[in-house]
Amino acid sequence: MRADLSSSYRRSLTAGLAAAALAAGTLTVTAAPAAHAATAVGIGRAVTDDAQRGIFQVTAWTDAPNAKITKVSATVRQGSTVLVDIPTLPVVPDPWDPSAANLFRLADAATLKLVEDGGRIPALGTYAIDVTATDSLGNKQTRTDAGQLDFRLRPEITLVPTKPTYADRNARPSGSVVGIQPGSGDRVTLTGRPVTIERTSPTQDGTWSAAQEAVTDAAGRFTSPPFPISSEDLGTSAIHFRTTVTADTPEIHGTVTDYLSVSDHVSRKVAVTATADKKRALDGQTVTISGRMTDPAAAGAPVADHQVRVRLGGPTYGTGPSTVVRTGADGRFTARLVAIAGKESGGWFVESPDRYVSFPDLHGALAIPLDSRTDLRTYGLSADGRVTVSGTFRARYVAEPSFPAAQFVRLEQLVAGGWKAIAWASVSSAYYDEFTLSAASKGGWFRVRHLTTDQFAESVTPSFRLTRLDTRIVSLNAGPEPVAKGGYVTVTGGLQHYADWNWRAYANAPVVLQFQPRGSTTWKQMATGRSNASGNVSLKAKATGDGTWRIRHYGDSRHFNTPASAGGDYVDVR
Hints:
Shape: elongated
Distance between the termini: 145 Å
Number of strands: 44
Helix content: under 10%
Strand content: over 45%
């Protein structure tokens, strides 16, 4: 049916429809009993094909042995008037059982149509179908009112995509409704038809929207009342709607449902700039991030009273503290956040919490170091003047954090009222958290310190004191000089230590006599002994050649060695 013929069509069929409706009211949907119950032939219900209501099909069978249905015919009537006589309904082959022939269907080429389309059906409506079946043994059966031909328009919905926008944050499902005419397949505009629209997915807060009603206009189009779509709703994968049209009139029959998904929206595009007041923040420090929002489409005019989300932490949302602030009249915003160590130090981020307002995410570097602890294990000052310290470095509150980038600790000594670094060592979780530091020193106050890095904050050990007493040999003399080869050289001197702010005799301490031959750099031990109660030392050894003699004391737990560079006394052997 052409759209421009729909009005005249309705006028010409008014009387016919009234008669059809009257006749349809007297027809029975369920089949009447067969006229001859004893016959072997059976006939099922005649069913209209809903996709093409100008076609119907029916089942027929025979219970007679070795017989099969050979012919099925049908008539379509209105009351007692036969409108269409169908001599043969072709069998529909069963692909699974070619020998079965129980389903018979009006051929596509014989599709029933309205008179105006060259057919025999006078008007839209319902009509009785009578079916006659005959088997190969001559058994025959006619079933009056085997079914009802539903020759009415089939409703169809066509939906139009809808997008909520920044200015209109609603979805308005819309589309058109037509009736598909039997036989010709013409699309007939359906005016004044109610359409039910439902949101089939809950809102983000878990509530459900009430169903809305719309009515088709003169062109068959409809638009639903608004369904609010929040920014939070847009965070779901899609928002689903169901539209339904139901009709049961002499002209139209059926229920049709179609579905619409809203997965896109139109946002307002703005420009945002932002900066932070620091690149590293210790645990508990405040980080201030400020910026401005403008509208490129309005010559960079400020955008006032719009939300901005500012957060600290790593690139994954939710890993650090965050806040939502609003822009002022000049488009500017300021957010102050407290840095929390352990919340995935990785930067600051500025984002739009409103999906209807769009701008590229901004981010900048911000390190939030973990609290660290530097602990001592051992420390000591050797007799040859070296301080050696061992310990561990790790995070204070996080168990076994990974820090493949080396962290440096340093040994510091208190010098002239200030701490001076005298040794360094690195620590990495790729190996162990232990360190050893060593440096030349004559003693004093020490500590080990880790300076703040992007990953770990400063930590320092308690200070500790290491002391030893200096020692020396005084009045060294070797004789006689010269000495005969094979004779004995006697070396004397005084052993002292620096105690109570003065050099004093160091009594009963072990000493060694050493000899360095002329032209050699090696000292040989020639004798051992101890200082007497006055700290005096006297040792002798056989002379084997020209060379230098000296006395040394090797320190104990309280004393340094006597200096190796203190020199000696040269003796000539003749």
